[in-house]
Structures are given as C-alpha cells and as structure tokens.
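look at this fold:
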Amino acid sequence: MTLKARIPYGAYWSTPFARWQGSFSNLHSIEFAAHVARNELARRSIDPGVFDYGALGISVPQSHCFYGLPWFAGMVGARQIGGPTLMQACATGVRTLLAAAQEIEAGMATVALAMTCDRTSNSPHLYYPNPRGSGGTGASENWMLDNFSCDPLGPHAMLTTAENVAKKHGLGTSEQHEVVLRREEQYREALANGAAFLKRFMTLPFEVPAPNFRKSVGTLEADEGVSQSTPEGLSALRPVAEGGTVTFGGQTHPADGNAAIVLATPERARELSGDPKIAVRLRGFGLARVELAYMPEATVPAAWRALEHAGCSIAQIDAIKTHNPFAVNDLYFAKAAGVDVRSMNNYGCSLVWGHPQAPMGTRAIIELIEELVIRGGGYGLFSGCAAGDTAMAMVIEVGDDNGG
C-alpha cells in the first residue's frame, strides 16, 4: 500500500555522530537538536510555522525532558504544534516516523517534523527513593551502562543476545570481522570526494557549539571516532565473553547526535521538496518481537511485516539498510532473507558511525533515500533491532512525482 505521508526530498538532516565522551558530550541533546533544526530549516527555507504536528524521539533522559516535544518545538520556533515524546530504544527512529505518518494518514496533520536525538555520553545516574529500604536508602541506576549490561527479563547483557544468535546459526568470529571490513569500506565511499555523499544531507564542516550555544568551539569534517580496522588488527582481538565469538571490533560504539525528517501530504511535500520531481513515498511499516535474548533475529520478522504492509517482496527491494550493533546482525539477516551481505548498508551504518539510539534509524533512512536517488529510484528497506528483543522496519519508494 501507499501511505498518504511523503518525505519532501531533501527535507531531512543529520549531524555527524560523535563517539561518546567526544565533541558532543556536554551538549544537552534536546537543546542541541533544536539548535541544529533551526539552522537546517533556515538552509532549506522552511518556515517553522508550516508544521502542524511534531514527534520527538529520545531514549536517554535529559534535564527538563518532561516537557518533550512542546519544549523542543518552542525552541525551534514552532510554538503552534504539539505531539508526543517517544522512546523505543534503537527502534525510536522508525517509531517516530510512524507516529508522524499516522497523524497525516488520519487527516489530523499536513506537515509534521519527526525529530530524534540522544546523548549517550554523561548519561543520567538515577536515584529511586525507598523509605522502606535499609536505613531509608533507595536504589540507583546508571541509565546507559546498567541497561546495556542487563535486560531485567533475563537477566543478561545485550552482548549475550548476539552470542546466542551466533551460536544458534553458526556465525563465527572471522565471518563477523569480514563484515566489519566490508562496512568500513562502504563508509569510505561516503567520505570520497570531500564527503560528497554525507554532504547530501549533512552540513559539513559541522560547527560544534559550546554548551550555551552562543559560539562555536570546533568543527567536524565527518563522523568523529570511527574505527579504521585492519584484518591483522581484528584477528588479534579476543572475544569479549569467554568462549564467545563477538570481539570489540565486531560491535558498534555508543555515540551522540541528532537527525530529523519532515513528513507531509503529497501536495505539501511538493511545496517543501528540494526537487519536486522526486517523490519519496512511505510504503509500509513492521514491528516484531522474538524469543528472549535473541535480539538480532527480530530484524527479519519485522522486515517481513513491513514488506507485507507494503505489498512487495524482498526480491523487489533495491537497497537495504540495517541497524547492526553487532556484525552478527547482518550475517543473520542476509542468511535468513537470502540477500548478499556485502550489498547491504552502502555508504554507512551504525556498526561504523555509531549507536546514539534514537537518531540512528532516522539517519539510516535518510541515507537509504539518498542511495535510491543515486540509483535512479527504487524500493528501500530499513530494519533495526531494539532492546527487549524487538525490531521495527519500514519500506520506502523513491521515484518520479507523477502528481498522484
């Protein structure tokens, strides 16, 4: 099927992603997202007054995030809009787009801003009061580290889910490292010719603001903290878990950044598009959950549901993007879906440029759109796993705008 909502071509952006404790580590993620959105909307001559809905995706709390989307929208200059603040771990990007698309589908909005942001650096250390605790002492939690290391349903770490899938499907360390080398090779294509691919949706050089957003304190030429692996270096790594297969080289790194996509009715999308001849249509969404502690497997049933919703098959898909916190994810997806693992994730992916959770999927979808435009159009599929052994996927189509 085809949903009413479209993505105006070029009406989206992403910051570079910076490895945690890097250049963005002291920037409030929501204020940073608003700072970037103001600049990017101005570059595209999009008046914040055109929006009648917004959705904010964030998975790491920041001070005053209780006010969520309305606060963000006010800082951007779109005080007329309301909307939800959404959190679905690494599926937040797709969830936020779906929320915006549903609002347009229901006829309740015409132009929506789907904003996603996260700062894994300096994440909150939370204290939960408990007057009945020993000596009146409550419980505490490190939002990032404690949740990376423990799914309370298990309990088990995220790493365990990758090892379970690797063992079940016979995915060894050497295979994982081959995927890493291929993904880094694909990312270098995005850096070619002065990062020409990234500049299709990213303002580079990127000026890093001070925490008060009153001045620039540096610049980034592309993503910060990206690894440059070698076969020799990877082969020297030992698995993180005793008796396991996943090394530190075979998994991604936490990161900071933000990304956004504008959605609109077909008529408004043409008005806001950087090239009205190009139509970016939303075809389908999918959600799935799999067995406890087998998170990487969830990307496949989510993809099948998105394809079913779109009314197409995997054979019709011209480009595939995945969220791959572990190289295991791509090996399993390719094996289960019957696709070439080397052809997925052209120009970049979260395995390489990092894992800021909420904006990760948003950026992947932006890159998928641009890859399809370079190809001359076609169908694209994104699927990404998330905490709780879940995943969300979506199918888009890039083609000529025929006025329909």
Notes: The CA atoms of residues 35 and 214 lie 10 Å apart. The radius of gyration is 20 Å. Residues 173-195 form the longest helix (23 residues).
